[in-house]
Write a structure and sequence with these properties.
- This protein has 170 residues and is α+β, with helices and mostly antiparallel strands.
- 25% of the residues lie in helices and 31% in strands.
- It has one domain: Aminopeptidase (3-Layer(aba) Sandwich), CATH 3.40.630.30.
- Strands 1, 2, 3, 4, 5, 6, 7, 8 and 9 form a nine-stranded mixed beta sheet that branches.
- Strand 2 and strand 3 form a beta hairpin.
- The radius of gyration is 15 Å and the shape is globular.
- The N and C termini lie far apart (34 Å).
């Protein structure tokens, strides 16, 4: 498996794999994650260095993106999502490789922390923990322990209200 930065020529394939990754078999509607992804590419929070793909034998099988979010409007953090893996390649380490790559890039660039909204059992394996008890408050407090944070530094996490990039709408 090869992990690399996404290039604009990848975007149609990324969108298609995101649709497949989040497809609801009971619905014919396009998953919201695919719509969100298109909006993230054109927003102020888009950071090309944090949009990565996984390739196997020249085929894209996964994608993850982190965009700029803000704590209390002036402390930059990263917000990750969506993370998409082709259904036939799930549970084979693709998502893990994508998350590791974004974490490594973020740490190298001096980012303070990454937040996400996801399953605590899954993301806890990667060092993410509940953000609210750490003092990082989401725009929707009902997210509870599903709103998670990964501290990338030795310093204590800053505290405050977190807002994702504009397309998230929260």
């Amino acid at each position: 498996m090869k992990i690399r930065s996404e290039v604009p020529a990848d975007r149609q394939t990324i969108r298609q794999l995101t649709v497949r990754a989040f497809a609801d078999p009971d619905s014919h509607r396009e998953p919201g994650e695919a719509v969100l992804l298109s909006e993230l590419y054109s927003c102020d929070g888009y950071l090309p260095e944090y949009s990565v793909v996984a390739e196997i034998n020249g085929h894209l099988v996964g994608h993850a993106i982190a965009t700029r979010g803000w704590l209390d409007g002036d402390i930059p953090l990263l917000g990750i999502g969506p993370v998409s893996v082709e259904p036939g390649h799930q549970r084979q380490g693709v998502g893990t490789a994508l998350l590791d790559e974004i974490r490594n890039r973020a740490a190298k660039h001096g980012e303070r922390a990454i937040v996400l909204l996801g399953n605590p059992e899954y993301y806890g394996r990667f060092g993410y923990g509940p953000a609210i008890p750490a003092g990082i408050i989401p725009s929707d407090p009902s997210w509870g322990d599903y709103f998670m944070v990964l501290n990338l530094s030795d310093m204590p996490l800053p505290k405050g209200n977190f807002r994702y990039a504009e397309p998230f709408g929260v």
